[in-house]
Amino acid sequence: MTVTDDFRAARDRLLELREDYKQAHAEFQWPRFEEFNFALDWFDQIAADRTKGNKPALVIVEQDGSSTRRTFKDLSQRSSQLANWLRDQGVKRGDHMIIMLGNQVELWELMLAGIKLGIVMIPTTTLMGARDLQDRVERGGANWVAVGNANIGKFAAVEGDYTLIEIGAERTNANAKQYADSYDAGTDFTPDATTKADETLLLYFTSGTTSRAKLVEHTHTSYPVGHLSTMYWIGLEPGDVHLNVASPGWAKHAWSNVFTPWIAEACVFIYNYERFDAAALMDQMGREGVTSFCAPPTVWRMLIQADLTQLTTPPLKVVSAGEPLNAEVIGQVGKPGASPSATVSGKQNPPSRSPTHRPSR
Q: What is the mean pLDDT of the chain?
């Protein structure tokens, strides 16, 4: 069996036991790999399947109603093209790259291309200023910085031996590599080596109790394989449309907007807005057929102040994460007519379908 077969077997068994936690807990065994590359061994294999490759993998809807839509096949081909271009620019296995982007298609393209190349990615929020970016360049050992042209100016005050990659329609930095040039590269990608399971994949600067953010390392298995648990915890299944309210640069974004949905062969759905509008969000959820929804308590509190019955087809899988959710909000979500369930106890409904609070990990 290949690593893809082993991974699929573990994934499929969790899907079979999605409503039997006791049995899943008793028998599940983590797949243990010496080599594994999520993009090549999993994502590309989905894309190559005739029945799955043309299914939606990513949908991004803007506030003005415009949208970007990509299938598994689209992203597989595009990420291979981008990986080839990056390698031609001098990016090599083990290099460290800061990725400072919003919820835009280039973020997902870069994540997949970076995994294929074996580089170490450092996702960073666009809210960072020069001082924090200097810290990330130094402690993260950044060789490369991929950044949108709206934020590239921040790096003028950031010292370091790194190369800028500018993303955007207009060129604003004459010294930066231009992401747009990557569309001229070939789409057949061959890795330079196999990816070891314990190779570093991600470096996250996380909040903590110290004055400076902690630097946390993740490997090619700790997130891509480890979040089999998140798939089970949320209840995601193939064909689901999953909306997770999280900003790029935070680890939760990688959990629920990259790895977990694609492990399940679900579609990642993003709604970009400048200011939160509960009615607009629910309208988009209905239009796109969202079946799984994860949001922090702040968003849930704003949602219950709106008319939840606007959701004509409410998602069956709802999750709150990040901090404790008060009982009043849980009660409102669980009211008949406000959600697909009349209970939050889980007694009348499978645990994965109960609209109850799931604690963050």
A: 89
Helices (H), the chain: 3-16, 21-27, 44-48, 72-88, 105-117, 130-140, 228-234, 251-254, 260-263, 278-288, 297-304, 327-333
Listed ranges 238-242, 245-249, 312-316; the one with the highest mean pLDDT: 238-242
- Sequence-distant (6+) residues with CB within 8 A of 127 are 249
Whether residue 341 has pLDDT greater than 50: no
Residue 126 and residue 101 in contact, taking contact as beta carbons nearer than 8 Å: yes
Strands 241-244 and 214-219: unpaired
**Residue 330 in this model has a pLDDT that exceeds 90:** no
Considering only the top CATH level, what class is 65-219? Answer: alpha beta
- Which CATH number applies to 230-353? 3.40.50.980
Q: Going by DSSP bridges, is the β-strand pair 241-244/292-295 parallel, antiparallel, or unpaired?
A: parallel
Closest CA to 72 of 33, 39, 35, 43: 43
Give the count of beta carbons closer than 10 Å to the beta carbon of residue 51: 7
Confidence of residue 212 (pLDDT cuts 50, 70, 90): confident
The secondary structure of 219-262 as a DSSP string is ETTTTTTTTHHHHHHHT--TT-EEEE---TTSHHHHIIIIIHHH
Q: Residue 337: pLDDT band by 50, 70, 90 thresholds?
A: low
pLDDT for residue 254: 93
Q: What is the distance between the alpha carbons of residues 249 and 100, in angstroms, rounded to a whole number?
A: 7
Q: Look up residue 82 and give its two tokens.
A: 């981008």
The per-residue pLDDT for 50 is 96
The kind and range of the H/E element at 145 are strand 144-148
Give the β-pairing of 177-178 and 241-244.
unpaired
Q: Which pairing describes strands 96-100 and 144-148: parallel, antiparallel, or unpaired?
A: parallel
Comparison of pLDDT for 61 and 327, the residue scoring more = 61
| SS3 (DSSP) at 162 | coil
Residue-range domain boundaries for the chain: 1-32, 65-219, 230-353
Say whether 230-353 and 65-219 share the same fold: yes
